[in-house]
Structure formats: C-alpha cells, structure tokens
C-alpha cells in the first residue's frame, strides 16, 4: 500500500527536494509513497494573493492567516481517503521527532504536513483542526520545509522494501536504543592502522559480541542520555504502586 503524504507550503518548488534523489526517489516512482504538494498561496483570498498579516497585539513578523490556511487544508481534506488523516505542523515549538516516532507515522495511511514561514500560523487554525506540532530539534529554521523532508526521509527508509536488506535497519543507530558500532572496509592496513582483528577472525559470534560492546561503549560515551534511558526501569515505589502510578511512563506525546 502506498504511504500517502501531502505537504502544504508557500514554497512548493522545495519539494521533493532531497527526496527526489536516490532511494527516496526510487521509492516514490515505485509507489511505496506518494507526494502531493499544495501551494498555500493558491488559496489566498485577495488579488494580491496575500497569505499573511501583522500580528494582533503588535510585534515583529507576519502571521499566516487562518482563513487562507483553512481553504488550503479543506481542499486536501476533501480528497483524502481516510476520515481523519494525521495532521502535523512543523515548528520548533513541537514535540521532538525521534526514530521511534517514524514507525508510528508509517502506521497512518495518510499524513499531512503543514510548513510555516515567518512568525508562524494563527493559533486558532492549529486549535480548530487539532494540528499537532512537530519539531526536528532545538533550533530555529526559516520554515518547515527542510524539517518536513528530514521527517519524511526518516520514515521512507523504514517502509518495508525500500531498503534492500532489512538487516541494516535492525543494526543501525537508535533501533535498540544504542548508537551503531564502527565499520571498516578494505584496505586492511591504512596509514599504518589496521582493522580490529576480530572482524577478520571469521567467528560470527565473536564479531556480534564485539559489535554489541562497541555499540554500548559508544552510546555511554557519546550519548549518556540514551544509555541512561536504556537502563532497566527500577521497580516503582510501594506508594506509587498503591496509587496506580506505575504506568506513568513518558511517551513523546504524539498521537496517531
Ligand atoms: N521550523 C522552524 N524551525 C523548526 C524546527 N526546529 N523543527 C521543525 N520545524 C521548524
């Protein structure tokens, strides 16, 4: 089944962008995913095709008008097959996108990304359509287009069949809460540095455990936050168990 993606943007020429190359492009042409790009400006209400206005209350920048956005979004909702496609607005204010979020996105057959520019979108539009905000990290971009491509690329790689060997997906960083082990190839000796002996030993079990240890060490050193999150959760206190709070595990809060 095709994973159906729609992007609303003021810069449709930015798509498919990086997704028009290599495996993402191949997956697109083979129908693993589809992309509809909607130009928000096509839904402007005046002859100047304006899409934004100054913020009520004053302040810098411009805000995208809710009526223009409504027209753009309704034009898409009219054509969707699912009643409630997932709606996301790319914004530094959103929940941070993670590897594990990508597979939940793929479980929804249709997904719509709204890319903002300027100061952002009128809040009423986000509230009315219950649009979830999604960030790719704690920094601010000019707009959501690059962020949408980051999210999409992460998801497209995970569509079964897009990457030749599914093994590479199992082994890669974040899949098991660990960073990936180091890789080596020919020549065996380069600038006087040789490849770790175990990798040429032919002992598959030894190689597996060496890689596992490397992954653990690298994760501990480079991302202690990931390592700590991986540790088995301690048993909840007696008080928490009694109050039924033991299930309050943290999720990233995104609903699909
Ligand atoms: N738009 C601007 N900055 C962003 C970010 N960090 N993540 C997602 N969308 C954005």
Task: Give the topology, please.
Blueprint: E1 3-9, H1 22-29, E2 33-39, E3 52-53, E4 63-64, H2 66-77, E5 86-96, H3 99-106, E6 110-115, E7 120-121, H4 123-128, E8 132-135, H5 145-156, H6 166-171, E9 189-190, E10 193-194, H7 204-222, H8 224-230, H9 238-243
Helix pairs in contact: 3-5, 7-8
Description:
With 256 residues, the chain is of the alpha/beta class. The protein has nine helices and ten strands. The strands form three sheets. Strands 2-1-6-5-8 form a five-stranded parallel sheet, with helices on both faces.
Bound small-molecule species: adenine
> SSE order, as H and E?
EHEEEHEHEEHEHHEEHHH
- Spatial separation of the terminal alpha carbons: 18 Å
The major pleated sheet works out as: 5 strands, parallel
Beta-strand portion reads: 15-25%
Rounded Rg? 23 Å
- Could you say which structural class the secondary elements and strand pairing correspond to? alpha/beta
User: How many helices does DSSP assign?
Assistant: 9
Q: What's the CATH class label of the largest domain?
A: Alpha Beta
Give the tags.
single chain; 256 residues; alpha/beta; Alpha/beta knot; Trp Operon Repressor, Chain A; five-stranded parallel β-sheet; three-stranded mixed β-sheet
């Amino acid at each position: 089944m095709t994973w159906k993606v729609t992007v609303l943007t003021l810069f449709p020429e930015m798509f498919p962008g990086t997704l028009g190359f290599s495996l993402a492009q191949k997956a697109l042409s083979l129908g693993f995913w589809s992309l509809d790009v909607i130009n928000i400006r096509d839904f402007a209400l005046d002859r100047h095709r304006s899409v934004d206005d100054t913020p009520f209350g004053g302040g810098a920048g411009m805000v995208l008008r809710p009526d223009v956005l409504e027209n753009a979004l309704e034009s898409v909702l009219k054509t969707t097959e699912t009643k409630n496609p997932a709606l996301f607005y790319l914004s530094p204010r959103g929940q941070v996108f993670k590897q594990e979020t990508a597979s939940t996105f793929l479980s929804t057959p249709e997904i719509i990304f709204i890319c903002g520019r300027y100061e952002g979108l009128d809040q009423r539009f986000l509230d009315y359509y219950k649009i979830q905000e999604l960030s790719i990290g704690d920094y601010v971009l000019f707009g959501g287009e690059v962020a949408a491509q980051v999210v999409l690329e992460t998801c497209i790689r995970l569509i079964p069949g897009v990457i030749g060997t599914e093994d590479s997906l199992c082994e890669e960083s974040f899949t098991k809460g660990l960073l990936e082990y180091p890789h080596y190839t020919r020549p065996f000796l380069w600038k006087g540095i040789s490849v770790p002996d175990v990798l040429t030993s032919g002992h598959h079990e030894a190689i597996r455990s060496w890689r596992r240890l490397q992954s653990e060490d690298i994760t501990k050193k480079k991302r202690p936050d990931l390592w700590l999150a991986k540790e088995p959760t301690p048993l909840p206190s007696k008080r928490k168990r009694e109050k039924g709070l033991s299930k309050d595990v943290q999720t990233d809060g995104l609903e699909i």
